[in-house]
Specification:
Elements: H1 17-21, H2 29-33, H3 41-49, E1 52-58, E2 64-70, E3 77-80, E4 83-87, H4 96-103, E5 106-112, E6 119-129, H5 132-135, E7 148-159, H6 162-167, H7 184-190, H8 198-215
Antiparallel strand pairs: 1-2, 1-5, 3-4, 4-7, 5-6, 6-7
Domain Pyridoxamine 5'-phosphate oxidase N-terminal: 42-160
Pfam families: PNPOx_N
Organism: Pelomonas dachongensis
């Protein structure tokens, strides 16, 4: 394990906006123009195609968290030009994002579409909703989500392709074999209490896969 010893030289730490801006060229006009306060035609179409998003939240003390959300494409409902609804599917019941929203409703969403190098960013305020009429529209495999995140859109814009092209995220030639690292359960145990024998480890891994199959929705 790496020692926690790195401290940047104070002479090389940026502490104000003027110092930050001095390092960069002025913002491109298109980057300013693209910011909208509602979901236009293309933003809506992007969301309908997206099977995956990340949601950024903060607690009341400003501690940040990012959580993935995924379902078949179009799982995020577009209620109107300024309102989205995201179903909350079964997870580990940590409820990190939901607790944060209760404390601080400001959220950031990043929508992705497989094969698209561009992403869609949406910023706004979220409310946790249990309205049966809404939740019933989000049923999958006869299972209704317990809660939905209803997001009031404040800012929306398309993000350019540079990050995805640098990372080669969708390029099959750059995929890593999953076997290069241990299973999820084994990694957690090795970093905490220690992993059991190979036979017991296989049982734990099989139990997780069984849980995936039974509790996806």
């Amino acid at each position: 394990m790496l020692p926690h010893a790195f401290k940047p030289d104070a002479a090389h730490v940026i502490t104000d906006e003027a110092a930050l801006q001095s390092l960069f060229e002025p913002t491109h006009a298109l980057a300013i123009q693209k910011c909208q306060n509602r979901l236009g035609r293309h933003a809506q179409e992007f969301i309908r195609r997206s099977p995956f998003l990340c949601i950024g939240t903060q607690d009341r003390d400003g501690n940040a968290d990012v959580s993935p959300r995924g379902d078949p494409a179009g799982f995020v409902s577009i209620l109107d030009e300024q309102t989205l609804a995201i179903p909350d599917r079964p997870g580990n019941n940590r409820l990190d994002s939901l607790r944060n929203i209760l404390a601080n409703p400001h959220v950031g969403l990043l929508f992705m579409v497989p094969g698209f190098d561009e992403t869609l960013r949406v910023n706004g305020q979220a409310t946790l909703v249990t309205d049966p009429a809404l939740l019933n529209t989000m049923r999958v495999n006869d299972r209704t989500p317990t809660v939905a995140l209803v997001v009031t859109v404040r800012e929306v814009f398309l993000h350019c392709a540079k990050a995805f092209r640098r990372s080669h995220l969708w390029d099959p030639a750059h995929r890593h074999p999953r076997s290069e690292m241990p299973s999820l359960v084994k990694m957690i145990l090795e970093d905490t209490t220690g992993a059991p024998s190979d036979d017991d480890m296989r049982k734990l891994d099989d139990a997780l896969e069984d849980a995936y199959a039974k509790s996806m929705y």
